[in-house]
Design goal:
By secondary structure, the chain is mainly alpha-helical. It is built from ten helices and three strands. It has a single domain, classed as Penicillin binding protein transpeptidase fold. A hairpin with a 2-residue loop joins strand 2 and strand 3. The mean pLDDT is 90.
Length: 228
């Protein structure tokens, strides 16, 4: 039997390795549908000397916080399949006009990035973000995506997850957060190292009020029905 040439063997090995890596990544995503997430790629890259983070389950998080982050970050979250194409088109249009770039990442994309990837911009990182987002949406219910987002989002320097943020800023567990407190936490999400919960600027207060109005418009905690 004729042996394959070394280029063919290398190509076969490369394809096998690529498929094995892809399968492993899918299995990891599937496992995290049920397993707690003790840390994330972004937490591991945080250079703050002290990190605060405490995992809590969905039932230990105030519904007001869940609604607040949807209102602030991704109002189409209950409806889309991981990507908000209308927001992407708008962001590309504004960029083409030379206007300040706006974010178009959904909560699902942010979970994929925070959990598995690294900060920065590159085509490789964006491609991996798309890959993981597809599998998150395919293998997890929306409630699980939101649960991990709330446990892995950054709310200040070294403050990761809603439980650590609630205890740091309000002295109580995340389950007891009220609407204004939830909206204030969500208000700093675009830039948690610059915007502050404990010393909110006029901009943060305006954003907090906008989020409260959006929470009302979206129907409050009724929005969370059917996410499981």
């Amino acid at each position: 039997m004729r042996r394959r040439s070394w280029p063919a063997r290398v190509a076969r090995a490369a394809v096998t390795a690529l498929l094995s890596t892809a399968l492993l990544s899918i299995l990891v995503v599937l496992a995290f549908r049920w397993l707690p997430v003790p840390t994330t790629a972004f937490m591991l890259q945080d250079d703050e000397p002290v990190l605060r983070h405490e995992w809590v389950s969905w039932d230990e998080i105030s519904g007001h916080v869940a609604v607040a982050v949807i209102a602030a970050e991704d109002q189409q979250f209950p409806l889309h399949d991981g990507f908000d194409f209308a927001a992407i088109d708008k962001a590309l249009s504004e960029a083409g006009q030379g206007r300040r770039q706006r974010g178009a990442s959904t909560i699902s994309q942010q979970v994929a990035k925070n959990l598995f990837l690294w900060p920065g911009q590159s085509w490789l990182r964006k491609g991996l973000e798309v890959w993981f987002t597809i599998w998150l949406e395919a293998l997890w219910p929306k409630q699980r995506i939101l649960e991990i987002y709330l446990n892995s989002a950054e709310f200040g320097r070294g403050i990761w997850g809603v439980e650590a943020a609630s205890r740091k800023y309000f002295g109580k567990p995340a389950a007891l957060l009220n609407r204004p407190e939830a909206a204030l936490l969500a208000a700093v999400l675009p830039s948690p190292k610059r915007l502050r919960v404990d010393n909110p600027s006029a901009y943060v207060r305006l954003r907090q009020q906008w989020i409260l109005n959006q929470m009302n418009r979206l129907g409050g905690t009724r929005l969370l029905q059917g996410l499981d």
